[in-house]
Amino acid sequence: MNLRGIVAVSGRPGLFKLVGQNKVGYILESLDAQKVKIVANITNTKLASLEDITVYGEDEEIKLVDIFTKISAKGTTPDVKADTATLRTYFNEVAPGHDEEKVYASDMKKIITWYSLIKDLPLFKEDTPDTPGTAAEIKLSEEKAAEDKKQKNTGSKAASAKATTKTSAPAKKASMTSKKGV
User: Fold this and answer.
1) DUF5606 domain location, by residue (predicted)?
2) What distance in Å separates the CA atoms of residue 75 and residue 57, rounded to the nearest whole number?
3) Measuring CA to CA, which of 40, 49, 146, 163 is 20 to 30 A from 172?
């Protein structure tokens, strides 16, 4: 299954295909029948590549691709409007070992909705290519890696900054008077 270039955009329903990039942002095309093209601003829009999304697990994180594969093998999905117990039972079958405290009903609904959107697309049946992808896809994955690294380092930097802060004696006040002849 080839999910490369398929992204979820924060604040927008549905899924989008990453078409390209310009100086303002990423050019995205919706995967629905309307094929609406939008430009997602780089500075205030968050994109999440489906290829990189994982679900909390009890032992280790579960890749979304693996969940989609199991849903495809199962063949049926429950109604997105089903009650939480039904969704949880189904999700235990397709994502065994997921963390039930961290994976909410809204997350399960979103995954089932995403599966419904992409199951009929030709790329769903393709194998993931070994090539890195388009320039925009590479930049998106690099930005995600940099953001993850920044988030991991933020806690340790704050602690080390506190440890290395020195206390010094107050600086002497500079004299603001000037000598003028009277």
Assistant:
1) 3-50
2) 23
3) 163
Q: What is the CATH number of the domain that holds 21?
A: 2.30.30.730
Q: How confident is the model at residue 156 (pLDDT cuts 50, 70, 90)?
A: very low
Query: What is the arithmetic mean of pLDDT over 133-148?
Result: 57
For residues 44 and 59, membership in a common domain is answered with no
150: confidence class by pLDDT, cuts 50, 70, 90: low
Sign of the C-alpha dihedral, residues 36, 109, 119, 20?
A: positive
Give the distance between the most distant pair of CA atoms in the chain: 98
Looking at the structure, tell me whether residues 64 and 123 fall in a common domain.
yes
pLDDT, tens digit (0-9, with 9 covering 90-100), for 37-69: 888 888 888 889 999 999 999 989 999 999 999
Amino acid at 168: S
Residue 140 lies in a domain: yes
Place of tokens 């949880």: 88
Do 66 and 115 lie in one domain? The reply is yes
Spell out a b/e string for 126-156, using b for 16 or more CB atoms within 10 Å of the CB, else e.
eeeeeeebeebbeebbeeeeeeeeeeeeeee
Provide the CA 81 distance to its chain's centre, in angstroms.
24
